[in-house]
Structures are given as structure tokens and as C-alpha cells.
Amino acid sequence: MQNREQQAGFVLLLRQANMSKVVMPDLIRHPVLSWIPAFAGMTGLAFIIAGAITGTRAAGTGQSVRKGRRPDPFRPGSGRRRFLSPFLLRSNACLGILCLVLGALFLSTPSVWAQPPEFVMTEGVAAIVNNAVAPARDKAIDDALRKAVEQAVGTLVTSDTLTEQYKVITDKILAQTAGYVQRYKVLSEKAEGDLYRVKIQAEVARGNLQNDLRALGLLHVQAEKPKVMVILEEKVMGVFGTTAFEDVGQAESTLIQRLLASGFNVVDPQTVKANLSRDQALRILEGDNNAAAAAGLQYGAQIVITGRAFSKNAGGRIMNTQLQSLQATLQARAILTDSAKIISSRSEQGRQAHIDEVQGGALAIQQAMQRMADPMINDILAQWRSEIYGRSREVTLVITSLVSYRHLSAVKTFLEKEMQGVRSINQRSFIAGNAELMIDYGGKSSNIADELANRKFTGFRLEPTNVTPSRVDVKAVLEK
Fold first, then answer.
1. At the topology level of CATH, where does 393-478 sit?
2. What class has domain 227-389?
3. What is the CA radius of gyration of the chain?
4. pTM
5. What is the pLDDT of residue 83?
6. Which residues, 6 or more positions from 238, have their beta carbon under 8 angstroms from its beta carbon?
7. CA separation for the pair 421, 399 (Å, rounded)
8. N or C: which end of the chain has fewer CB within 10 A?
């Protein structure tokens, strides 16, 4: 770990010494100059070819001189080749090496330039000492820039990594904001008593940040995987040679194994079965997405996977033997608990020949789930990453205990006109003092919760009660 920190520190020193790495990506974003990375790559390739030709030519001519074969200008086919002095030979050799180095440098830079910047809006605060406003303003801007880099780091590493390696990140990353912030714009600033507040919009160089986090050994995964709850109904026909059914739990156990192997945190299925009421389970299995979302939130899950698995005898014995053909049908869907939105829905079938209907049916269900698990997991990961780390996404805001529609109007006005990052608001409902808003927001949902909790509305305040990546629940409390 110490070697990684030393390497990362060396990279940071190089970046501070060569600020072109910070400035050049700004040019690349210009529509007219967007071809520069491709041109740099082609130029680098030309440098490499030229270097190889020049170096070979220099080496070949040097060999001719050493062997005493001076080119004869009158010999047919010799052309007008000039004799190269040792000084020119050394110059050509050096030029070849220089071309090779420049070519490698040009070819390596487009991968860095291609990284888009991270647009972050933050607020910095500093104390005003002895009525000195100017120094307080500078410190507030520095605080806002540090928070911008910290927020960008939060989209690249897991929360566990942030907690465990906070000192390393603070010393090696957050203390060097100048190496990551390409430019910033002050959105608002004001003095409040002994404090000076500044809101900025900063552009953070993700490529530089990723490289340094990787050098520190902290860039393991780019997104935390969600917590998943699995509720599957399974019926295997043929208990004791009858038409009765048995739940052997094969589909559930197979899916949970795949989820755990993929790094997901899974709610204990025995805890769910012991505490989930029969009526609630039936509603979930019958397709009530709201009931599934409510059950998932109850156990802290962000995603609920629910469905049915069924196996039966496909038709008698196989070629007068004791083997039977068992067929399984599996249907499942994945639901976001924040919005009750279906993010994956799949069906699969499995077949198995077995002497025992129950065991054969369980194996057929296992085969169907093995075919379904990986595609469904890919659906979940793709949707989860777009929901959590998209530049603009929909966040559901639920406000309860409102005593007046005017209070809701005040909240909407604040979000639309004062809160940075809000692109649009759509009011879904207002029923019996409870309102639901859909916010198109370019940041984290926790930022919405923080802003609403700290905002002083006339006659009431908002207390966050539940915050997830795509949903914020707040309660209106009257001020006494």
C-alpha cells in the first residue's frame, strides 16, 4: 500500500508540473476541435513509422561507412545518395528515438482526453474572521472545490472504500483539487453573519481522478450493487406418485447463489418467509408491484425479484423405461423498490429426464433458472448503474402531512427556482395532504434531502424520513 501511495504522489507531482493535462481536455470538448484525439493518434503512428525508417536508415548507412563502402554516384541504381558524417548519423538515430517517444506519447493521450468531465454543484462555507471577507471567500471557494472532488470520488468507489480509506483519499486526492477541477463558475455567494457561503458549478476531470484512484489501489468497482430480496413460488408435481405439489426451493436457492457470486447483498430468505404475511406474499406473487416494493423497503432492499416456477410430467415414460420427461416453466421479474418500476422481466424453460418426478422437476427448474439468472443480473446491473450514476435521472419526492396546498406550492417554487441541478418538476398527485413529485435532477437524491431539511419555509419545515438513490420521503412539520 505504501508503494501505491508513493506512485500516486509521483503522479500528482507530474500533474502539477504539467498543467496541459488539465487544460487540453477543455479544447477537446469544443465541437470544432473534437477531431484532435484522432489526429493525435494518426500523428503518433506517423512518428513511429518515421522513427523506424529513420533509425533503420541510419543503422544501414552506418554499416556501409564502417565497411568502407562509400556510395558511388556514377554507379547505376545508386542514385544521388550523400555520404553521412558520424555527426549526421548520430542525429538521425536520435531523431528516430525522439519520433518513437513522441509517437508513443501521442498514442497514449487520447484515452485520457476522451474521458468526459464530471459536472458537480456544491456549496462551500468559511468563517469570516475580523471582518475579513476576501480571505473567507477564498476559503469558501476552496471548500466548495474540495466537496466537488469528493462528490466525484463518491461516484467511482464504494461507500465502504470511502469509509475505510478516508484518510488516504483525503491526503492524496482531496488535498489536490487543482489537479482535478478544470474550471468552475460561482453561481451565488453571500455573507450570513460570521459565515461566507459560495455555491459553484465545477467541472471535475474524471480521467485524472480515475488514474490516481487506480494508482492508490482504490478503483475496484465503479458502483455498489444493490441489496436484493427474492420471493419465488415453486411447485414441483408428482409427490408420492400423485398430482400433489411440493415446494423444494430449487429456483430460489439457485438464483441466490448466482446473486451472491456476482457480489450482491441478499436478504435472508428465511427471515422474509418468517415475517411476510400470507396475504402480502400472495399479492406480490400475483403481480402487485407496489406490494413487492413495500416489502423490499421493509427489509432495506433496493430490488425485489419475484415470480413463479412450475414443473410437471411432459407425458409418460420414455421408451418403456422408468425414466420420465419433466418440463419446467419459470417466470420472474425484478422491481425497483423506490418506484415499483419493473426493470427486468424474463421467462425460461427447462427439461430433464429422471426416474423420480420430484427430483427431475427440481433439476428442470434449476436448469431454467441457470439460463435466466445471468441475463436478469445483467439487466439489473445495467438499469441500476443508469439510475444511480446517470447525469440526469428521475427522483421521486413524496411529501406527507401537508396542511395546505400553499405549502406544496412553496416547495415546488424552491425546487424550480432556487435549487441547482433541477431541470423540471412534474406533480403526480396531491391527495389528503400527501403529494408526489417527479423531479428531473442532475445530482444525488441525498442532495435534495439535505436542501429540503435545511430550508426554512414559512410556517413549516420538512423532515426527511426515507432517502434512497431514486426516492426521497419527507414529512411536513408545522413550526410552533
1. Gyrase A; domain 2 (3.30.1360)
2. alpha beta
3. 32
4. 0.46
5. 46
6. 244, 312, 313, 356, 357, 358, 361
7. 20
8. C
